[in-house]
Amino acid sequence: YKNNAEIFSKNFEDISNGTLSAPALPFEIKILNTCLNCKIELRDKDSAEGWIGASAKMKLVPAKPDINPEANLTGLGFEVSGKGVSGKYQTFLFFPKPPVIQVENDEYRFEIKRIEYPLPFMVTLKDFRKTLYPGTDRPLSYESDIIITDGDTEFPATISMNKPLTYKGYTLYQSSYQIRPDGTEVSVLATVYNTGRYFPYIACLLLSIGLLTHLYLRS
Description:
By secondary structure, the chain is mostly beta strands. It is about 10% helix and about 45% strand.
């Protein structure tokens, strides 16, 4: 982002170690490391040289990707040079203070965000609840109270692990939840659009017609 306006983006799967081509930026970027799912660990003082801000005290370490993609903490480390700026930075998903680089009167902010696909209606989270197994911190169940807004239509609903919501061909599942670095709990809803939802009904109708035709011909 340049002064809060997006000027350059790239799919994480297309990023690899080495120079990143970004003509919209006034400096060069070198990708130092990437991890689809990262652990945050303290950085040794001996390895802190050149790292700027919070990156001088913490480092991103690759971890095994979670079976649930929404639970992965994606991140990367990079180095900038040129236009009077230099240094090594890190950024990751939900980072409350992503790196900001000042070049003359412009600010460049680096964020990792999930790709957004708009729904034909709005989902507002009102409350999130989780139940833990007694004596542990393992979640037994979790559910979300939401509001569906579609034009002049608005109604409340509750989505739990065993109770999805289907509306306009979209099915919303209670997939998981996350705890962001600032301690905020986030409800994760998985959305599936079933383009073939009418096929079972059509198949049953054709089967019924076939049976009736067979009985008529035998009579």
